[in-house]
Please model this.
Amino acid sequence: MLTIRLHDRRYSRGNHKHDLTITAGLLQGPFTACGEGNEQSYQVDGNKVFSAGGILAWRCVKGTGAKPVKLSATGASLPASALAITVSSVRRI
Model:
């Protein structure tokens, strides 16, 4: 699992309301289970992105191994649409 946390420097380090966290990890289950927990979905740049609770967006991609990879973005102060755009823009490097 890889997690990257970005923080807005205009706020104190202890104020996590202004963090954006991006996580990549193996999906536990088959690729078809990616949408479980979905409350709203978006189509962003040809990618199907799921959202739950307004503070979480995710999508799944094929990994280099047999298991799919789940990419997610969370942020308390960002709207679900911004999180969907963020997680859609994540690319393998």
Summary: The two ends are 15 Å apart (CA to CA). The chain has one helix and six strands. The longest helix spans residues 80-88.
